[in-house]
Structure formats: structure tokens, C-alpha cells
Amino acid sequence: MEALPTHVLNDDHSLPSVGFGTYPLVGEQGTAAVRSALEAGYRLVDSAVNYENEGVVGRGVREFLAASGLDRSEVTVQTKLPGRHHDYERAIASGYESLARLGLDRIDVLLIHWPNPSRGLYLEAWRALVELRERGVARSIGVSNFPARLLREIIADTGVTPAVNQVEMHPLFPQEELRAAHADLGIVTQAWSPLGKRQAPFEAPAVADAAARCGVSPAQVILRWHVQLGSVPLPKSATPERQVANLALGSFSLDEEEMRAISALARPDGRLFGGDPETHEEM
Ligand SMILES: NC(=O)c1ccc[n+]([C@@H]2O[C@H](COP(=O)([O-])OP(=O)(O)OC[C@H]3O[C@@H](n4cnc5c(N)ncnc54)[C@H](OP(=O)(O)O)[C@@H]3O)[C@@H](O)[C@H]2O)c1
Predict the structure, then answer these.
(1) Ligand 1 pocket, 78 CB below 6 A?
(2) How far apart are CA 10 and CA 155, in angstroms?
(3) Ligand 1 pocket, 194 CB below 6 A?
(4) pTM for the whole thing?
(5) Residues with catalytic annotation?
(6) Do 163 and 10 meet the contact criterion of CB atoms below 8 Å apart?
(7) Which atom belonging to ligand 1 lies closest to the Cα atom of 192?
(8) pLDDT in tens, 101-156
(9) Ligand 1 pocket member 226 (CB < 6 A)
(10) Domains of the chain, each with CATH number or no CATH
(11) What is the SS3 assignment for 183?
(12) Could you tell me if the CB of 231 is within 6 A of ligand 1?
């Protein structure tokens, strides 16, 4: 099986090509799901203050590292600052709180969850993440749900470019323009809801035909499409078999025509719930 490419971030740290989504995994089942995902081979785990699961994510990671004997540096743990913590001092404190809940030596990747433009505090939040990186609370910093204009604004303000932007992306909403902006700026794209929360067009001929040709599932075709586009999908699954399948993307590849056909499933209104970050806000 071909090894999937690793991304080198603009701060020279590296990022696996597929990550594990953890919303809404909580409690004992959450820890078990994180552990089984790590046992299946995931090396990037996505969390957020607002998922209320940093505690069990951190526990799952610690248990896995203890049982496997792997070095802490093998696993990248990512979390996100919520909208209600954008104020500079609050954001600094929030980073320390996340670190304590994770129970790890550092947050590997810390993101601003949503920009909430009408509140006007995303610049403060970004300055706080820069400071948290300086202090070693976070190793790498980035954002989520930032349109290109806001990326440019925080870069101009601080001189610091986010390492990643985690955005909604699936075949109905492939984010072509934003990915081009990321390529210009040196930002890695992470894809949330990469399977469209199971609403992705699994049965569309573009997906189903490629799945039949490659002898894989439609979900695997869609995840491979993400990887070939250079984005990092973060599929969530509570099911160990699906966790394994969602990572088994190295034994087949999509040809150019298949890639084009899947991207052509895009729709102008393809977002899952109208979550346009210029207007949609989450606290
Ligand atoms: N930054 C943000 O604003 C934001 C927003 C949304 C999500 N996220 C992150 O992105 C992650 C992924 O997004 P998501 O959870 O919304 O959606 P998703 O990963 O696209 O879809 C998850 C759903 O698909 C099912 N599934 C997983 N693998 C499958 C397979 N091989 N075949 C069929 N169904 C499959 C899962 O069910 P089972 O669990 O039963 O397998 C679950 O119902 C989240 O967990 C979270 O970490 C971030």
C-alpha cells in the first residue's frame, strides 16, 4: 500500500494527510473511539472546546501512547478556541484551559474555531494564538472557517500566516477558490464534514463508478478525492471498521477524469447548513 503524503506546514512542522474527527464523541465511548482510531493508524485527532470532549480525547491519546510505547511526537492533537473566548486575555486563558483538559505537554495545533466577523474580535484572538505559540502552549496555530479576506487581514496585522484553515469541504462544496487562496498563502486546507455528515453524494455515478472500478467504498473514493486535491479530510466515525476503512486510501488512486467528475458535483448552495462564515457565527 502506498504511504499517503505528509504535509509540511509553513512553520516546518508536519501534518498527517488524514485526521480523525471527534464531534460529537464524548464520555467513555469517546475515549474508546479515539483509542480505536489511533490503533487503526490515525495520527491526527481533531477536537474543540465546544465539542466538550478535550478531556476524553486527551485521555484516549495518553492511554494509546502508554499502551503502544510510541513517542508523544507521533500524535498530533488539535483543538479550537470558541467564539466566546476571542477577547485577548480570555483567549490566552482558554489556551491554558484546553491544555489542562487535554492533559498533554502542549497543544499540537490550536485553531480559532469561527471568525464571527460581526463581533470584530478575530484579530485579538489571532494575536493571542501567536502569543500562545511563543509561550509553548501551542506548537502550531491556525484557523477554521476563515474566508480569504479575513486570512489576509490577520496576516497583515501580525505578519503570521495560519498553518492551516479548517473549512467545510466535500464534493457538493469543494472550496475551489479558497483552496487556491490557501495555495498562494502557504496554508494547508483541512476538510470538515469530508463525507458531508453522510449526506455526500455516495450514489452519484461519479462516485459510485469510481468505487466499482477501484473495488472500494464510495466513502473511500470521496476521502481519496480529498487527499488527491491536497486537503486533509477529518472523517468522524464511532465504528472501528469504518475508522479503518476511512484510512485505507493508499491502495488505489483516482484518475484525472474521475477527479474532475467528482469535483463537478459542486453546487453553489452545496453547504450542509448554510454555514457561510461571513454571516454564520458560533460562540
Ligand atoms: N471546524 C468546524 O467548524 C467543524 C464543523 C464540523 C465538523 N468539524 C470536524 O470535522 C469532523 C468531521 O465532520 P462531521 O463529523 O461533521 O462529518 P463527516 O466526517 O463527514 O461524517 C460523519 C458521519 O459519517 C458516518 N461515516 C463515517 N465513515 C463512514 C463510512 N465509511 N461510510 C458511511 N458513513 C460513514 C459517521 O457515522 P459513524 O460514526 O456511525 O461511523 C457519521 O455519521 C468532526 O468530527 C469535527 O472534528 C469541524
Answers:
(1) no
(2) 13
(3) yes
(4) 0.98
(5) 51
(6) yes
(7) 10
(8) 999 999 999 999 999 999 999 999 999 999 999 999 999 999 999 999 999 999 99
(9) no
(10) 6-197+230-239 (3.20.20.100)
(11) helix
(12) no
Indicate the helix (H) or strand (E) that contains 188: strand 188-192
- Residue 35 in contact with residue 6, Cβ under 8 Å? no
Test site for ligand 1: of 23, 203, 221, 231, most ligand atoms within 8 A of the Cβ: 23
- 260/197 Cα distance (integer angstroms): 22
Which pLDDT tens digit goes with each residue over 177-198? 999 999 999 999 999 999 999 9
Which ligand 1 atom lies nearest to the CA of residue 22? 45
Q: Do 2 and 250 meet the contact criterion of CB atoms below 8 Å apart?
A: yes
Which set of grid coordinates corresponds to residue 80?
A: 479550537
User: What type of residue is 216?
Assistant: V
Grid coordinates given for 244: 479503518
- Count of residues for the chain? 283
For ligand 1, atom 37: residue with the closest CA: 237
